[in-house]
Amino acid sequence: MNALDGNVKTPPTRDEIEISIFGPGIGECILLHLGDNEWLIVDSCIDRITRNPIGIKYLKGLNVNVSAAVKLFVITHWHDDHIRGASTILEECGNAHFACSGAIRSEEFLQFCMIGERALMETSGVDEFNSILKILSSHRDEGRPESRGPEWAIAGRKLLHLPKGGRSFNVEVHALSPSDAAITLGLREIGQMIPKVRTPKRRVISQTPNHASVVLWVIIEDLNILLGSDLENQEQNDLGWKAVLFSENKPSGRALVVKIPHHGSSDAYCREMWYDMVAADPIALLTPFASGVKPLPSDNDIKRIKRHTSRIYCTGNPSGWHPPKRDSAVERTIREIVQTRRLVHGSMGHVRVRFKAEEGLNDPKIELFDGAYAIA
Amino acid sequence: MRISTEHTTAEQAREDYIVVPNIKPVAGERQGTLVNDLVGTSTELPKELAEGSYVVRIPSAAAIPRHRFKVLQKFEGTVLEISGQECRALIRDLTSPGNVEEVTLSVEEISESDRSLAVPGGIFYWYIGYDDHIGGQRYRSSAIIFRRFPFWREKDLVNAKKKASSLIERLGWKREDTTHQR
Amino acid sequence: MSQTLETDSASIIILGSFNPAIFHPIWFKTNGLIKPDEADSAKLEVTHPAISIFSVEWFRLQVEQEKFSVQTDDEAHFELLSDLTMGTFSLLEHNPVRALGMNRTMHFKVDSVEAWHAFGDKIAPKDVWHGIMKEPGLLSLTMQEPKGNFENHIRVKVEPSSKVKPGILIDVNNHFEIKDNDVQMMLSILKESWRDVLAKSRKIADYLIRRE
Asked: Which of B5, B9, B16, B76 is the best substitution to test chain C (most C C-beta atoms within 10 A)?
């Protein structure tokens, strides 16, 4: 089903919760309907043809007035694949609180961005963040309220509270990471990315593990949703998933829907997360990562996740993607020169989950668009 | 005829001259002092017109290039990893934007003079097409060429730091207690 | 009319105030802007405080006191021309600049003199001139489209080609005024626009040359 057709454009009802996840192979974007046509956007990726952020495209397709309806926009970390199109979202969603990882609240990170301005080459993550900084500066100059951001997502901080009042639901959004130790480590890593004198200008390649990543816990009435971002496991108790599990701010309750961290990789698998924070047989959502030595999720990753749930949905299957057919002379030449080759930016797969709060996940409506599939 | 300096169009002078006032370099003399310690020699200098001035003939560009590369496909690549003789890179299609592929290729495909730039983060263009020579011979051709930028200078980094300091003040990003809760 | 693109060149022209003497292959090599081999094999025409000209395999550089110009005939180096210019002026960030031109110059060969004349008649109808001239012919036609505030513009020039016979030259110039000697602004324009300018210039030429 094409994401522009048919009932993909049917908006949720006021009392319907929706989680939509988009993932084209590099990057992802998550949208949550919090009830009453109020929305949360987490991260951003772009439509590869139009170069527009998919979150905005989708919401406008539902006739959502993004400038009023989006209440919170969170960037879980600053790397290329989580941030493309983010400046457009920030500009268009003028009423949204904007939050990003506390690990970038530093002169080192800004220095890194300012260096990127002088790099002469396009580096989408840094260029995007520089656009964000320009917008934030102009908001300041215009005297817009400080609460427009950024708000610093750190472990234990509540980023949004929409009290019930006249609303369908009471909504809270909490950051579960990064921990203090993760922030310190993240800052050190940023410092190491600042180039040295007399070194050549290069693009920054995404670093893993991602210590600065923001994990979100969303509470809608008494339903919990865990958005695992790209957080990975670490040896120390004050980093990664251990820091979340050992934290005094670890939420009570269990998540019925989980966005699987880091594309299902083994490095991000935390058994205790599944047993302590996630309900039995939850709905698990993930996006593929088609670049890298091994694309994610691998068969072993899927086997591992299946131990915890039978309901796994992925926005795309890169093994089904093929590079476009080009001129025969071009194809011959490519075949002669490259040893291996695969497409890493495929169609913008979309998984959409909708359910009524009072019904829970007894009978959710799960829709798969543009190559998204259920992992059987 | 003076070369036009009024506009930025690419006007190709066929034969053109400029008058060089007030400078009297001597033919054959090293111009080290004039070019800031770089060594350069000019072509044979023209005859003197009047005291302190010269006419310099500007050589014209070649009429027709001896070969023309007809580009069929352009990629921009970023090196992800070099492992032995293998280069893993992400290539972005510039001819039909939107396609991104990951490829591995031999380091041998990279010119020796570019190999020092073939490190993670190094950026290259990859052109595929036909190279048509003036004699009529056509060659199917592929060229991987690394992008070159000046090295980072101390003042770039110092300026960035200053800008960052001022921005952090302006944005109100002063660090507070990181365990703050609302 | 059938036509083939015979030569295709791109150039970047910057007006300002320059010291031509510094634009030497060694300076470019030292600053990592060209390959060492390119610098060593560069054809140095003249290096002088009033004018410098040198060429390497893929570009020709000419700098006078008020004009910087770099040009390539190799389509596989069009993008790199912008890198070279950006790299140069990122180092000369205080150099006064007042205008930037991004140009693509294309010479098309047409299949017959008749077709060549027909094209000229299409692009510049002669009816008006017959009253005052015998056998008027098109020497050069330039059309301009302002962009934004009229200081920036696109100019398209059409002429009989001097390189290809019978042939047509189509030259597309994208001109930007640079205020306050703002080199950073000029670098941003180059970084963001160069590829689009090249593509759009080709589209303009294709549109004109294919008009029946």
From this structure: B9
Distance CA B171, CA A133 (A): 9
Cis amide leading into A150 (omega within 30):
yes
CA A129, A130, A136: angle at the middle one, nearest 5?
90
d(CA C31, CA C150): 37
- The pTM for the full model equals 0.86
Whether C53 sits inside 8 A of B59 (CB atoms) is yes
Write down which chains contact chain B via at least 3 CB pairs under 8 A.
A, C
CA distance C23 to chain A (A): 20
CB A342 within 8 A of CB A318: yes
Architecture of the domain spanning B67-146 = Beta Barrel (2.40)
Structure tokens at B52: 């302190």
Helix (H, G, I), strand (E, B) or coil at A75: strand
* CB atoms A120 and C87 under 8 Å: yes
Q: How far apart are CA A234 and CA A215, in angstroms?
A: 15
* pLDDT tens-digit series, residues B46-83: 444 444 555 565 655 555 677 888 999 999 999 999 99
User: Which residues have CB under 8 Å from C131's CB, separation 6+?
Assistant: none
Contact C180, C169 (CB under 8 A): no
Total number of residues shown for chain C: 212
CATH number for the segment(s) A15-375: 3.60.15.10
Q: Chain B contacts of C80, Cβ < 8 Å?
A: 125, 145, 147-148
* Minimum distance, in Å, between the CA of residue B10 and any CA atom of chain A: 24
Contact criterion met (CB below 8 Å) for A43 and A29: yes
Nearest to B104 among A118, A323, A340 (CB): A340
Give the pLDDT confidence score for residue A145 in this predicted structure.
64
Q: How many CB atoms lie within 10 A of CB A262?
A: 25
Nearest residue, CB atoms, A118 vs list C32, C83, C90: C90
Residue with tokens 């234990």: A156
Decide if B101 contacts B91 (C-beta within 8 A): yes
> Mind listing the pLDDT tens digit for each residue in B140-150?
999 999 999 99
**Cβ count within 10 A of residue A294:** 12
> Which amino acid is located at B1 in the chain?
M
Portions of chain B given CATH number 2.40.50: 67-146
This model of the complex carries an ipTM of: 0.89
